[in-house]
Backbone:
């Protein structure tokens, strides 16, 4: 089953063409790494796959359904329930503690606060952050913040995790920890699409898609 | 909606100092509105109420027109045509009494005069009244210190002095004898039977009540009246009734609204100025809210982007920040109402002699709860107005632009 499919996707930003006709299929349960140099268009591709940005031309299919980018409500619902995002920067909200940060997407989905809380506890424990749930961001390390961001991406049990340079700000120890988490999540059935410029990390994925100057070179 | 509350309240609570400053700003505006409204309308309503109670709702008087006195006719000993009296006043009163909108009618004879007491004298307005009929047309007894209106009936040489007239002459007890000098030079030694204190300075400082028959005799105008005063059921209809009356009689008919139109116009201007000041205060506090929410939006672009990425709608983002404005406005209104109530309590407890257009022993406040309701509506309106633009800006942010800029 295809989770995401891009058909002839082109993207312009101003006069500059970032994506020049991308055809890509992501299958359920895959761990796909997208590699490419800076400015190659890999992040733009990820934003389109995550329905955060719409292509200038071409089609996007999510779980075999054609995406209508004019329907904000539907796009938001898919992003909330079916997609989890992890970025290079954790983007955790500083006003909230770790637990509340993880709970946010679940509350948005309409999950009862108590249920959201117990699921967030469970995820934080699973990611080695048990006992630190009530801590604020300034009380934890960068690696721990990124794990919280992964827990937040997982709370609504999405079918795909889209990760944009998730280890870009981490040291080697934390990079390994994050990659181990991704592999474990993937083994449990969640599709992972990870953008990275580190070939070493990309090789840990099932499939590597190489992007250069807005085209897919391989994959 | 839970997710909006969850984020919005958290943002507010985590920025305690800024939130508190904004709430204080709104509360000052609200308190100012409540206190100023209650002070101003308290004073105005007190004045109007005294006027309504004391003064006739409608007054009929001869037209004020210049008499062309021919020197030749004076030389021949002819008297000019009298235009300072109401002819056929008894029939006119009976006719007016038949109107179901009229409670009572009373005749008056009004003249200028001078009061002398010892070495002091004071010009005054002599108002000749019928003690039997007058209470039907005005609530005069309410303002009498000793409630002795009927003493004018038993003692035809009795007078009731305005409190400030008495004070000017140095009279502080009833029973004193004053000399009343009429414009025609005739005098009457009158006994002070009561004092009259309405609280309205220009009335208390000029008016002297006397039995109408005594004044008629003093002025040599037996059986004459130059004013008919009318009390109506609904004071707000006085102007309409006066216009209807005016169409059927040749004398001048004046409602209390017209008689006091200068004051009422001043009150309107006063209200406009006061509400402009309050508007300015609320505008300043609205800018405070605008500022705090705009700052939050600019600082939290990244957070807004991630909220959108996790499925928050643009509408949700708008509501998160609008809710901040709403909560600030609401809490500001509650705190401002508490402040306003406290200030009202304090002002009401202050004892001081206010001497101006009215005289009271303290501030006259209108404690109507409607000011609190208006204050709540205004503060919410201003808060929501101030928070709309930054909230809208937040909702229009493009998350991809923000992620790319990191």
Residues:
């Amino acid at each position: 089953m295809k989770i995401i499919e891009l058909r002839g996707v082109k993207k312009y930003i101003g006069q500059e063409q970032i994506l020049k006709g991308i055809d890509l299929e992501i299958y359920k349960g895959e761990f796909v790494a997208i590699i490419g140099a800076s400015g190659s268009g890999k992040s733009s591709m990820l934003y389109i796959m995550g329905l955060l940005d719409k292509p200038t031309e071409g089609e996007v299919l999510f779980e075999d359904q054609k995406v209508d980018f004019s329907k904000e409500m539907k796009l938001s619902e898919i992003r909330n329930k079916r997609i989890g995002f992890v970025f290079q920067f954790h983007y955790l909200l500083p006003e909230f503690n770790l637990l509340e940060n993880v709970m946010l997407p679940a509350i948005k989905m309409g999950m009862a606060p108590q249920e959201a809380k117990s699921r967030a506890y469970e995820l934080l424990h699973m990611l080695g952050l048990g006992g630190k749930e009530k801590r604020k961001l300034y009380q934890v390390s960068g690696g721990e913040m990124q794990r919280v961001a992964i827990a937040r991406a997982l709370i609504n049990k999405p079918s795909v995790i889209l990760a944009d340079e998730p280890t870009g700000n981490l040291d080697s120890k934390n990079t390994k920890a994050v990659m181990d988490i991704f592999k474990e999540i993937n083994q449990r059935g969640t599709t992972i699409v990870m953008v990275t410029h580190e070939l070493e990390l990309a090789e840990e994925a099932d499939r590597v898609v190489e992007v250069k100057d807005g085209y897919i070179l391989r994959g | 909606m839970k997710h909006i509350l969850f984020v919005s309240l958290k943002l507010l609570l985590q920025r305690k100092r800024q939130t508190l400053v904004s709430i204080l700003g709104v509360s000052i505006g609200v308190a100012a509105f409540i206190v100023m409204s209650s002070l101003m309308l308290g004073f105005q309503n007190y004045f109007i109420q005294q006027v309504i109670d004391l003064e006739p709702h409608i007054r009929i008087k001869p037209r004020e027109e210049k008499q062309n006195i021919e020197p030749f006719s004076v030389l021949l000993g002819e008297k000019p045509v009298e235009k300072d009296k109401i002819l056929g006043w008894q029939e006119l009163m009976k006719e007016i009494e038949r109107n179901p909108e009229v409670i009572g009618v009373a005749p008056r004879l009004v003249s200028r005069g001078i009061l002398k007491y010892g070495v002091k004298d004071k010009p005054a307005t002599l108002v000749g009244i019928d003690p039997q009929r007058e209470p039907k047309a005005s609530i005069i007894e309410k303002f009498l210190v000793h409630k002795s209106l009927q003493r004018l009936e038993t003692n035809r040489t009795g007078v009731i002095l305005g409190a400030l007239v008495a004070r000017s002459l140095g009279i502080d007890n009833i029973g004193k004898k004053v000399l009343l000098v009429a414009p025609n030079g005739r005098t009457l030694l009158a006994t002070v039977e009561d004092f009259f204190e309405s609280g309205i300075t220009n009335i208390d400082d000029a008016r002297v009540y006397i039995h109408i028959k005594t004044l008629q005799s003093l002025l040599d105008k037996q059986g004459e009246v130059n004013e008919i005063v009318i009390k109506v059921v609904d004071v707000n209809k006085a102007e309409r009734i006066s216009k209807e009356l005016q169409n059927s009689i040749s004398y001048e008919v004046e409602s209390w609204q017209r008689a006091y139109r200068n004051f009422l116009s001043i009150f309107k201007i006063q209200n406009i100025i006061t509400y402009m000041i309050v508007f300015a205060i609320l505008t300043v506090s609205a800018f405070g809210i605008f500022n705090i929410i705009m700052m939050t939006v600019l600082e939290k672009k990244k957070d807004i982007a991630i909220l959108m990425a996790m499925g928050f709608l643009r509408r949700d983002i708008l509501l998160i920040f609008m809710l901040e404005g709403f909560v600030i406005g609401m809490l500001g209104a509650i705190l401002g109402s508490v402040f306003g109530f406290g200030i009202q309590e304090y002002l009401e407890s202050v004892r001081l002699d206010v001497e101006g257009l009215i005289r009271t022993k303290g501030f006259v406040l209108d404690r109507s709860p409607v000011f609190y309701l208006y204050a709540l509506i205004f503060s919410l309106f201003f808060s929501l107005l101030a928070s709309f633009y930054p909230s809208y800006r937040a909702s229009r942010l493009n998350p991809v632009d923000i992620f790319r800029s990191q």
In short: Chain A touches chain B through 31 residues (CB under 8 Å). The longest strand of chain A covers residues 2-13. The helical segments of chain A are 42-49, 72-81, 98-109, 113-126, 142-154, 172-187, 199-202.
